[in-house]
Amino acid sequence: MSDHLTNPFTNPDYYRRIMLQYRLVKYNVDDYSGKSFMCVFFTRFCGVGCPFCFFKSAPARDGITVADQFNEEGIDKFIAFCNQANLGYVLISGGGEPLNHKRAVLRTIAEVETNRIVLVTSGSFAMSRHAASLYLKEIEAALKSRKKPCKVTLRLSVSAGHAIKLGIKPAENLIALFQEEYARHPYIKFQIHAFENDPMFQKVLDQFPGSHADYDPDKRASDDEEVVKIIPQKVHVSLPSGYRFIAGISKVFGSGLRPNLLEERSVENTVKVFEKDLEESEDNNSAVLYNLNGKNGLDWSLNYNGNICLWQNQVNDNQWNIYEDDYSKVLHATFQDPITLSYIEKGCKYRERVVSEASPRAVLRVKSISLRDFSGTVLFEEEKLRLYYALRVLQDYYREGKVIKEGLEMLPDELKLLIKGNPQEVLELFHQAEYTIVDQYKQIPFDSVAWRDLLELIKLGHYDLTEEQIEEALEYYNARTTLKTYRSIRDVEYETGEAIQKRLTERLMYMKPTSLKLFQHSLSEATL
Fold this sequence. Notes:
By secondary structure, the chain is α/β, with parallel strands linked by helices. The protein has helices at residues 12-20, 72-82, 102-111, 129-144, 160-166, 169-181, 200-206, 268-282, 327-336, 338-358, 360-369, 375-379, 383-399, 405-409, 413-420, 423-432, 437-442, 448-459, 467-478, 498-509, 513-517, 520-526; strands spanning 36-41, 87-93, 116-121, 151-157, 188-195, 212-215, 234-238, 244-250, 288-290, 296-302, 308-310. Strands 1, 2, 3, 4, 5, 6, 7, 8, 9, 10 and 11 form an eleven-stranded mixed β-sheet that branches.
């Protein structure tokens, strides 16, 4: 690149935003015309408090806002989005306890056009058989109101963590109810979701003497008859009455937002589980849903604050939200962004390989944190790395003849030359630019707590920083903070408690800012 041209990596967010203004790559959404998948979190609230829960979801209290849970408008827009997305499978999960948001659950069953709806639950609603029976009757009534039938599966999560507060009663109540009242129902089904090396699945079966568990030898058994949704270990359970249901035994992910990347051996097992799941359950591409008829669909993920993306394919500088973005806009914006398009078309291994050219640490970070839903956000947290990946993707598409000439010509010369150039030049410019996560934080109003959290992550080796850059971060923080100051990065303490967990979670899944502003008045009232 000519010496007189600016190195884009000195101001990466600026150049990335220029790139997002134009359609730069040819794509065809019709290549993904098969049945698609939707995973939705209706609420962030749950009263069970499982120790392994990444979200650390607390019970709902006063001041529930649109950032925490779908309101009626959100439900309306969710249904509209779904009914344009050619869905074959809807998974209502969490987040929080999804069945606590009954209005959203029942409207989904009644109004969303799909072949299958799966309700993931802790079973907290089924502590009494009477309460469980009433909820199931409401589900049945919603199902009867549909224009076209679909299968509704209640998937009960069973683990030692759930049992701390709930015991085994929800499982007993639900299995007994399904056995007696829904065994022959054509559309309402029951499943258990259990975990490897967890004793509670067997303890549940022990409550039904004579029950038999037949482990399916197919390691890629699908949970659905039309689309490929892999159950890591599928189990066929038979009761003496003749009632049968399916159980799925899942891997245990060591998810956590503060792994120590300076001690790689401490995260080895977490990384292996993450990689194994992507390979065996997702075919190394979580954004695409493979149909059993050979067609491809898309795998959507919708957060409780309305943020929508393809699974593991969220990038926080290009967010979409159902409160202001309809299906057509989200679909085409997803395909237009080179970062998200490349994951759809080229998958996880390609993404990892290209990112590793510039920052192997970023790839280690996403696998060690192991929060699959937000892998894209973790991987592309750094603006500089985002720009690097986008440029490298465009270089590869340019060589493939897929870059649109008219869009390319709209870009500044420094970007055009790099896209037409070679990968080594992009990498050299990336390393020459002294722009880091520290500089990125300096671009926003100073917040003592946010910076303290950043320093803790720096201490744990989450970013590529020199000793001088770490000292710069400490000096900047110490000169402005109203909290404790630090002489060395080693002095930054490991904060305990749920407060930091919530703060670090919010760094990943904050509501799209322009969508949040739509509700600023009601949010202010909720905090009074």
